[in-house]
Backbone:
């Protein structure tokens, strides 16, 4: 049960209501109300859980959850007392259900007296700006935004409607879309790592581009996104970026792409739509990743990745080849021993 000191529940809901919003199939003969969501091992008789990973089939078999999202092929493994919500996307359905019980926190609009706001800044309606925030000249902030404590928005930055920016962030040289979530400690729009080496030494290359962030993007804590050197650095609509990700100058990321923590993307990398990138992956720069490609955790990408392909290893190669190489190395070690 989520701690009520930190999470506010919106109410109780009939199982038929949950089935309606998720598209799951249920047995309506025993429709009743449920009070919340919980993991299989912790859920009680009035809570809804889910099974998405077959590693947890044993947890399903002994779970006390009152209801569970599950694929039809695993339904027989559930306790007889458990009501089943049959769906091919259990985790997705669970996410929608959790949002229903625990919707995004509403906030009270208002500007703290301790915030510093330039006279030329344009602030929309129903905006909240917390203590210590600095809003510089000619900044534009749309309706319904929340700017966290001690966040600095440099001159001429534009922020769309209903965007939330956490505390201790800094934004410069950026245009941010609507419904964006930027978590604590994110830095956007600073210089890219641009230097030219010559006979007389190393000189800095002016970084003259912007960072353009689309709508419905989420950016995790500690992530840094450099502005472009000439071309803009861009992040497409609905993409999700985890904590501690480095995105270099001129990088272009498509729509609906997911990037896990500690990934490093060097300058001028082009990443398509619907790409999934595992944690600690690295990109050497000036490479292209096609739409729908997948990269395993700790992949080291040095060449272009075709659309729809799955790669792993360092240097990254097709995933089956990587698994074969790993298996062969294991066999060689056994023979040697």
Residues:
């Amino acid at each position: 049960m989520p701690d009520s000191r930190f999470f506010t529940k919106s109410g109780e809901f009939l199982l038929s209501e949950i089935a309606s919003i998720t598209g799951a199939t249920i047995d309506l003969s025993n429709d009743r109300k449920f009070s919340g969501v919980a993991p299989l091992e912790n859920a009680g008789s009035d809570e809804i859980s889910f099974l998405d990973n077959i590693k947890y089939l044993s947890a399903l078999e002994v779970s006390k959850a009152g209801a569970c999202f599950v694929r039809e092929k695993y339904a027989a493994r559930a306790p007889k007392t458990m009501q089943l919500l049959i769906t091919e996307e259990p985790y997705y359905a669970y996410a929608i259900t959790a949002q229903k019980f625990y919707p995004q926190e509403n906030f009270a609009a208002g500007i703290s007296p301790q915030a510093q706001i330039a006279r030329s800044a344009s602030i929309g309606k129903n905006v909240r700006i917390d203590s210590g925030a600095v809003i510089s000249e000619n900044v534009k902030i749309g309706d319904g935004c929340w700017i966290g404590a001690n966040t600095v928005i440099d001159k001429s930055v534009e922020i769309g409607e209903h965007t939330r920016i956490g505390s201790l962030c800094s934004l410069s040289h950026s245009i941010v879309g609507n419904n964006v979530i930027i978590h604590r400690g994110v830095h956007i729009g600073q210089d890219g790592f641009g230097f030219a080496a010559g006979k007389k030494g190393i000189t800095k290359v002016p970084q003259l581009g912007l960072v353009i962030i689309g709508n419905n993007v989420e950016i995790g804590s500690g992530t840094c996104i450099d502005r472009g050197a000439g071309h803009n650095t861009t992040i497409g609509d609905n993409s999700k970026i985890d904590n501690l990700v480095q995105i270099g100058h001129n990088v272009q990321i498509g729509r609906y792409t997911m990037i896990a923590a500690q990934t490093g993307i060097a300058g001028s990398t082009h990443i398509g739509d619907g790409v999934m990138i595992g944690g600690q992956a690295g990109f050497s720069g000036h490479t292209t990743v096609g739409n729908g490609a997948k990269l395993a955790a700790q992949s080291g990408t040095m060449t272009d990745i075709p659309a729809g392909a799955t790669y792993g290893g360092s240097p990254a190669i097709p995933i089956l080849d990587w698994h074969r190489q790993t298996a062969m190395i294991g066999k060689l070690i056994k023979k040697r021993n």
